[in-house]
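Risk register update: the risk of archive-format incompatibility is retired. Evidence:
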Amino acid sequence: MAIPDTLAARLIETVKENNLSGKFVMLGRQRWVGRRRKRSAELFEKVLTEHLPDVPESELANADDEYAETFFKKLGFSEVDSLDFSNFENASIIQDLSADLPKELEHRFDVVYDGGTCEHIFDLPTAYRNIHKMLKPGGVLIGHSPCNNWVNHSFYQINPEMVYGFWEKTLGYQVLNCSLQPLMPMHAYKVATTTNPNETGKRPRLSATLPDGGIILNYAVRKPLKATKQSTKVYQTDYENRWQDTF
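Archived output:
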């Protein structure tokens, strides 16, 4: 997994606009790619200048390898870990997200970054609930997940209904942002937002037509400060509304 310039720009925005800091963990050990070309390079430069004006791009990469710990430390995190199923990329924490989570990982992190891991885990509900356990109260999950045109990339493509139906409605998280980000460099600015089905009672509607090519779901959700009763059942909002109309 790697962080191209478009997603690096969105990460910087999410972290800085929400004043995120503290203990950070990336799911999978992310590689630092940085600048690519065309419009995405322009977007990255613009965001870097706005939010990290004193940090040159040359200082964002690890000095000795291709990974992204330095990038996240430059964003202001005091501790940066990586979590993976195996040690093939020397992750600092070896843990299967579809297995029982050890106590030492519960309530440990201020920010969890899913930059393309959870869609590869067949037992996705367990993985998401383990992320919920890993976050401190008030902690934030940042997600960059394949949403459209990623056939054969993974088990799943993740869409906005997951953000609103699971994280917000079921677990009570606050949605900080939810948008659809084209990954092709030429389409870096062609972002679409969505309506919230918990407010409209209907499935999410896009604010704009998406271009061809891979689309990333760019979202961030904040865990409640106080524990809430969790539901073990998750349903789409529009279906729940229809079912209620029949009773």
